[in-house]
Amino acid sequence: GNTSKRGNYVGRWSTQFIPSCARCSSNLVMRALNNDSIIDVGTCEQCCDWSYTDRKGWEKAWPVTSDTYPSEPLDETLMQELGIKWPENRKVPFESYIKPMEQTFSWLIEGVKVALLALAIRTWNKGQTTAYLNSFAVST
Questions:
Q1: Backbone phi, then psi, for 63, in 5-degree steps?
Q2: Against a cut of 0.70, is the pTM above it?
Q3: For residue 117, how many C-alpha atoms fall within 13 Å in the half-sphere facing its CB?
Q4: What whole-number distance in Å separates Cα of residue 72 and Cα of residue 62?
Q5: Which tens digits make up the pLDDT trace of 18-77?
C-alpha cells in the first residue's frame, strides 16, 4: 500500500527519493543528542526531511505519472446538492503531484464519498476510482 513512512500519514515515495536522506537523518540524530556536529544543509535537494509542508520536498515523492488516476472532475453542483465536498489536497484533476496527508477519519470518509459518487454517476471507471482511493491508502 501507500505509506509516508510516518504514522497517520499517507503518501507514496519513489525509490530514488526517501523522506530523510542519510545526511539529514544523521542531523536529526545529532539534534536529538544535542551534538554540536550538526551540518547545516539548508534546503536539502535529496529529500524532504520529513516535512510535508515544503512543496519542493514532497512533490518529488509522489508525481502523478499514471494514466489510471482520474482526470475528469465531478459536477460541483451535484456534489453540493448531495453535501459531498472534495477532501483536502485530493481534488480532481490532481496537480502534477499528490501531497502526503495526515489520515483523519473525516478526511477518509470524504474521499470514499467522492469515489462512490464518481463511480455511481459513471464519471470514473473502476480503475480510476481504485487509483483515487489508493491516494488515501484505502485498498479495494
A1: -70, 145
A2: yes
A3: 21
A4: 20
A5: 567 777 777 777 777 876 655 565 667 767 666 666 656 666 666 776 678 898 999 999
Which residue from 119, 64, 115 is spatially nearest to 94, judged by alpha carbons? 64
Residues 6+ apart with CB under 8 A from 91: 73
- The whole-angstrom distance between residue 42's C-alpha and the CA centroid of its chain comes to 24
- The span from the CA of 133 to the CA of 13, in Å, is 17
In tens, the pLDDT along 93-138 reads 877 778 778 889 999 999 999 999 999 999 999 999 998 998 888 8
CA-to-CA separations, 52 to 6, 47, 101, in angstroms, rounded: 11, 11, 8
Rounded to whole angstroms, the Cα distance separating 67 from 110 reads 23
Contact in structure between 17 and 47 (CB atoms under 8 Å): yes
